[in-house]
Design goal:
Subcellular location: Cytoplasm
Largest sheet: 5 strands, antiparallel
Number of helices: 5
Keywords: Cell cycle, Cell division, Cell shape, Cell wall biogenesis/degradation, Cytoplasm, FAD, Flavoprotein, NADP, Oxidoreductase, Peptidoglycan synthesis
Oligomer: single chain
Protein name: UDP-N-acetylenolpyruvoylglucosamine reductase
Domain UDP-N-acetylenolpyruvoylglucosamine reductase C-terminal: 200-318
Organism: SAR86 cluster bacterium
Distance between the termini: 15 Å
CATH topology of the largest domain: Uridine Diphospho-n-acetylenolpyruvylglucosamine Reductase, domain 3
Length: 320
């Protein structure tokens, strides 16, 4: 069967298993762990054309309210959770509006945007452990959340449900410069800001910077912003495109680094770097897995050779 993906690559899978009920998990017994590939909405992956592994997709989409947390099925579209929160006075996720993908994918790379990370609101994650072949609940402090990283990148877990704890009062995080500038430019007073208005502002801001995958196939940011030791670089290096993180660590703009070496790149006609954001790579049509992989490798090598900075690819690269 063909696997739909937001980068628009032609991808075929040999086997596919949909987890619709807990009973479906028993079907995993006959599949070797190293032959399983867990996929969600395929919005943050670069896939090769022929996948030999069994594709596993979770389709739990229920939302249940408990005394201490909100339990959400891993197969629910992230946008649906945002809408549910806005309609039910559950605060905190507004800055994560308009991020593509499923709820189950959110903890894997600890999605974040405009100064907010999803890990701040996760109570626990309910999973199927592929090593023990048992269901288990992993508490937040066991998830090893970091910048775009978590324990779930080990591929040993199938995320079934994510349990959230939300704020009871609306206390928006407006610290991110691009967001603050947007609100100021559009004469939106922070004191009169509502959750729905903030969510709509984030959506508009993202749309102004990032292309719609349905029109221009892409997976969002293609590289992570690198974290470097502050003292390893001159204070004026990438000025205006760097953010001090404290403890001697500085975050650098991967987009700006790409802009600086872009004239040196050999880019195939099937691909292009987005005109309004250099972190976004677009499939012009008929791009192949090798086209993408070779260009990403080329970017990484040139930036390392020129600046001694190692970039990490953000979407998952799956070759088989």
């Amino acid at each position: 069967m063909f696997i739909s993906n937001s980068f628009g690559l032609t991808v075929k899978a040999k086997n596919f298993l949909s987890i619709n009920t807990p009973k479906d998990l028993s079907k995993l017994d006959i599949i070797q762990d190293n032959s399983i590939l867990i996929l969600g909405a395929c919005t943050n992956v670069i896939l090769n054309k022929d996948l030999t592994k069994t594709i596993v997709q979770v389709n739990f989409k229920d939302i249940k309210i408990y005394e201490d947390y909100l339990s959400v099925g891993g197969g629910l579209n992230w946008a649906d959770l945002i809408e549910y929160c806005l309609n039910n006075s559950l605060y905190g996720l507004e800055n994560l509006t308009h991020i593509p993908g499923s709820v189950g994918a959110a903890p894997v790379q600890n999605i974040g945007a405009y100064g907010v990370e999803v890990s701040s609101f996760i109570h626990s994650v309910e999973c199927f452990n592929l090593l023990s072949q048992q269901q288990e609940t992993i508490e937040r402090d066991q998830c090893r959340f970091e910048y775009r990283n978590s324990i779930f990148k080990s591929k040993n877990y199938i995320i079934l449900k994510v349990n959230f704890i939300f704020s009871k009062t609306f206390e928006p995080d407006l610290s991110y410069p691009a967001l603050a500038n947007y609100l100021k430019h559009n004469s939106i007073d922070a004191k009169s800001l509502t959750p729905k208005l903030l969510s709509e502002s984030i959506k508009n801001l993202r749309n102004s910077r990032l292309p719609d995958p349905n029109l221009d196939p892409n997976v969002g940011s293609i590289f992570k912003n690198p974290l470097v030791k502050t003292n390893d670089f001159d204070r004026n290096f990438l000025i205006g495109h760097r953010w001090e993180q404290g403890n001697g660590v500085t975050k650098l703009s991967a987009a700006r680094l790409i802009e600086l070496i872009k004239p040196e790149l050999s880019i195939p006609e099937t691909l292009r770097i987005y005109e309004h954001h250099s972190l976004v790579l677009i499939n012009n049509g008929e791009a192949t897995f090798n086209d993408v992989k070779n260009l990403l490798d080329q970017i990484g090598v040139k930036i390392f050779n020129k600046f001694n900075i190692e970039l990490e690819i953000e979407p998952e690269i799956i070759s088989s």
